[in-house]
Amino acid sequence: MLNQFVSFPEPGQMQALAMYDTNVSAATSESIKERMPHVLSVAGSDSGAGAGIQADLKTCAARGVYCSTVITAVTAQNTVGVQGVNIVPEKFVSEQLKSVLSDMNVTVVKTGMLPTVGIVKVLNDSLKQFPVQALVVDPVMVSTSGDVLAGPSILDILREQLLPMADIVTPNLKEASALLGGIKLQTISDMRSAAKSIHDMGPRNVLVKGGDLPASSDAVDIFFDGVEFCELRSLRIQTQNSHGTGCSLASCIAAELAKGSQMLQAVRVAKHYVETALDYSKDIHIGNGLQGPLDHLCKLKRNVHSSSRLQRFNPDDLLLYAVTDSKMNNKWGRSIAAAVKAAIEGGATIIQLREKDTETNNFLEAAKNCLEVCRLHGVPMLINDRIDIALACDADGVHVGQSDMPAHVARSLLGPQKIIGVSCKTPEQAHQAWVDGADYIGSGGVYSTNTKANNSTIGLDGLKTVCLASKLPVVAIGGIGLSNVRSVVELGPENLKGVAVVSALFDRECIATEARKLHTLVSETLKTTSAAS
Ligand SMILES: Cc1ncc(COP(=O)(O)OP(=O)(O)O)c(N)n1
Ligand SMILES: Cc1nc(C(=O)O)sc1CCOP(=O)(O)O
Ligand SMILES: [Mg+2]
């Protein structure tokens, strides 16, 4: 059933096409539509969402492949075990199969829990009526918790009808043993013999998974394509969060085949995917039982972190905006994180890392350290210019200027939750920033400065013009310090929310002391100015 696969574009390439080529011809968009890799998962629903249909959906999403679903059974399941199983009538399984297969250009079918002979029969019939490019069979029989999901009654039809249609079958040791009439599988040599015997039942390829092999420090799987064996080894990851690994492995194989990979390559990618997800999720806690789920998309921990800042952007955070400078920190012998910590202790309300001559790897390392400090104090941290660094450390946002990454591109890369600031010297630039989805404007240079070479000044008048032209909150920048900050804040537009400073904090002996003085002056002046207006 596995045909010669053409090479499909990677998901990132498709996204790039969709985002930037507004002149995509009808013919091109038609070919993208036709070649969209698509896996249909025919499996049971797991209410705990670690395994089954839910694992398949998440795995395919993680691999950039569309996944549709035909549900064969609904299980009441959690991290403790399976509390109930409700089998979907075979007629309705057949109806779901017809709905998807007759309409949706499915590339690969992946099967999981097939609880009755009748359901296997309707699946076979549907596949004959609507052939697909590949069939991946995960012969699910027992859950990770040891509960039976498909009894021995389905073994005959699996062996006689489904396996001969399969491009690959992926039993674990218990399932391989059941398919072979209950023989004991205890060694790698036993696994090889099992792979060969199962191959004799008709599937093009067999992957016997050795995760449960006793006394093995590696996780060893045996792949057999009818001619050659391949021993696939990965580190055995110590974790209880392994619920759903079998489903995820099989659906990742299906996803890779749908994208056009050769079989052994698809298996290798899938094994690496599961290993990475296991390692990433080894210390997460979901549920109270012994069988925790994988974090298929490797994003949950990041969100636990980010949720410490509940509000996305508060314009009042612009009050005392501290912008770092590596030259100044070097001069005073301070690390970026130490400087940031001192600024926050003195009252800085938002931080921007502006590291013009720090190497990328050092910048990323420092950004991660600074982010820890900022999160601890609930202060947002932005990155100057470098969207890549902001993405890599999951910063709260970026600040970009007129010659940096355009704000609308930054927004599409960072998503709606991140803060984006844009430097504007004119009302036109301010209008564009608003159109592009910026959250605030940095406007200057209000005064001349030694910190930024060749920076043109707009003065207090220029600042006021920008403020009055925009709906966005504005922070003033350039040459601002204790001696002139009052004149800036007294300008009075309602949306002028604060001042951004570099040298007035970071080119001083005691950052915290200077921050404290500036914070007091700015907040008192803002109060009296707004009371007067
Ligand atoms: C708050 C704030 N406002 C303006 C700037 C200047 O940004 P940009 O014009 O991109 O210049 P560089 O800082 O990149 O030299 C800023 N960084 N922060
Ligand atoms: C980074 C930056 N941007 C400016 C602009 O006018 O957009 S002025 C500036 C430097 C501000 O440093 P200091 O507070 O030491 O004057
Ligand atoms: Mg810039």
Topology of this structure?
Layout: H1 11-20, H2 26-35, E1 38-46, H3 52-62, E2 66-77, E3 82-87, H4 90-101, E4 108-111, H5 117-129, E5 134-137, H6 155-162, E6 168-169, H7 173-179, H8 188-199, E7 205-209, E8 218-224, E9 229-235, H9 245-259, H10 263-281, H11 300-306, E10 320-323, H12 326-331, H13 336-346, E11 350-353, H14 360-377, E12 381-384, H15 387-393, E13 397-400, H16 407-414, E14 419-423, H17 427-435, E15 440-443, H18 459-469, E16 474-477, H19 485-489, E17 496-501, H20 503-506, H21 511-532
Parallel strand pairs: 1-2, 1-4, 4-5, 5-6, 6-7, 10-11, 10-17, 11-12, 12-13, 13-14, 14-15, 15-16, 16-17
Antiparallel strand pairs: 2-3, 7-8, 8-9
Please characterize this protein's 3D structure.
It is a single chain. The chain is of the alpha/beta class and 533 residues long. Helix content is 42%, strand content 17%. The protein contains 21 helices and 17 strands. The protein has helices spanning 11-20, 26-35, 52-62, 90-101, 117-129, 155-162, 173-179, 188-199, 245-259, 263-281, 300-306, 326-331, 336-346, 360-377, 387-393, 407-414, 427-435, 459-469, 485-489, 503-506, 511-532; strands at residues 38-46, 66-77, 82-87, 108-111, 134-137, 168-169, 205-209, 218-224, 229-235, 320-323, 350-353, 381-384, 397-400, 419-423, 440-443, 474-477, 496-501. Strands 3-2-1-4-5-6-7-8-9 form a 9-stranded mixed β-sheet, sandwiched between helices. An 8-stranded parallel β-barrel has the order 10-11-12-13-14-15-16-17, surrounded by 7 helices. β12 (381-384), α15 (387-393) and β13 (397-400) form a beta-alpha-beta unit. The longest helix is centred in the C-terminal third of the chain and has 22 residues, at 511-532. It is elongated. The N and C termini lie far apart (77 Å). Residues 1-29 and 305-310 have low confidence and may be disordered. Ligand LCLJCK34 is lined by residues 321, 323, 352, 354, 384-385, 399-401, 404, 421, 423, 442, 452, 475, 477, 500.
